[in-house]
Design a protein that fits this description.
The protein has 298 residues and is mainly alpha-helical. It is built from 13 helices and no strands. α1 packs antiparallel against α10, α3 crosses α10 and α6 packs antiparallel against α11.
């Protein structure tokens, strides 16, 4: 059985990998929702191979929680990819990851994961750091920063719903099966959204196709790692640790798109990292490993 430390390492690496997602969306050479569709389309063969391998759990049938996770993914990526097109990579990723507030409250209520006072302090510091990163960004980045920021903030709600649904599904099923069915359910929804919005569906260049393939790999490795960790770590701690993603995205946006990384943003990123360490230390102080009760199947 993997240790808690191993689960944390996987989660941190997965969050860092997810930092590449907004960069690849910018390079996909398609509409925002269409980029989400290709992300899922290229991820599905990999997920199918992982789930249907000999000795694996098998494909099975989707549960209600998996279907809910798929619906949340449609809303999540639809809003988030449009925010990436309208505001800076740093803002789009940071505001989206204000999810821990919602996840912590629901985790406390539904999964009986009562947070310690020190964890609440760490959560507040992480959110403050994330907001500082957003407010400290160069306001001239993006075609419509206020609207993009609003889309990113709303995305946090959908992302929280996805976290909670995956956590519930992981009480009974493997990460591979949960990822396979949530992705399979979400893919048609993203394609329909792209068609309704009149987006360009096919990438206009080989580089765009490569970016879409990369999105599929990021989805499997990044979200797959998060889903796997959710079966072994408290929901709230997982959500806070995923705040590594906006830091990675901000650095990549600075390196690849020359998006200014201001001193205030750098300070906010440092606060987020410190808060993540504090949150993990707080969780580690609890006696024994936290056992998550299996959620009912919808």
């Amino acid at each position: 059985m993997p240790t808690r430390a191993a689960a944390l390492i996987v989660l941190i690496l997965a969050a860092a990998v997810l930092g590449f997602a907004p960069i690849l969306v910018r390079l996909a050479d398609t509409g925002p929702a269409a980029a989400g569709f290709w992300r899922f389309a290229f991820a599905l063969p990999l997920l199918l191979l992982m789930t249907a391998r000999p000795g694996g759990e098998g494909i099975g049938r989707p549960s209600g929680w998996m279907m809910l996770a798929g619906g949340m993914l449609v809303l999540d990526l639809s809003f988030w990819h449009y925010s990436i097109a309208l505001t800076s990579v740093a803002n789009a990723t940071t505001l989206t990851n204000l999810t821990p507030v919602v996840v912590t409250l629901v985790g406390w209520w539904v999964f009986r994961e009562r947070p310690k006072a020190l964890f609440v302090v760490a959560l507040a510091a992480a959110i403050a750091g994330a907001v500082t990163m957003s407010l400290g960004a160069d306001g001239g980045q993006g075609s419509n920063p206020p609207l993009g920021d609003a889309f990113a903030a709303v995305t946090a709600l959908w992302y929280a719903g996805y976290f909670i649904a995956v956590k519930a599904a992981r009480g009974r099923y493997s990460a591979g099966r949960v990822m396979l069915w949530s992705t399979a359910i979400a893919a048609p929804g993203l394609l329909m959204a792209a068609l309704v919005l009149g987006e360009q569906i096919l990438p206009g260049s080989w580089g765009g196709w490569a970016a879409c393939v990369g999105l599929g790999v990021v989805h499997v490795v990044g979200q797959g790692g998060v889903a796997w960790s959710l079966g072994r770590l408290p929901t709230a701690l997982t959500a806070v640790t995923v705040l590594i993603q906006p830091i990675a995205a901000a650095v990549l946006g600075w390196l690849l798109f020359a998006e200014t990384l201001t001193p205030v943003q750098a300070l906010g990123g440092a606060v987020v990292l410190a808060a993540i360490v504090l949150a993990q230390w707080s969780a580690a102080k609890k006696k024994g490993a936290e056992a998550d009760a299996p959620a009912p199947v919808l």
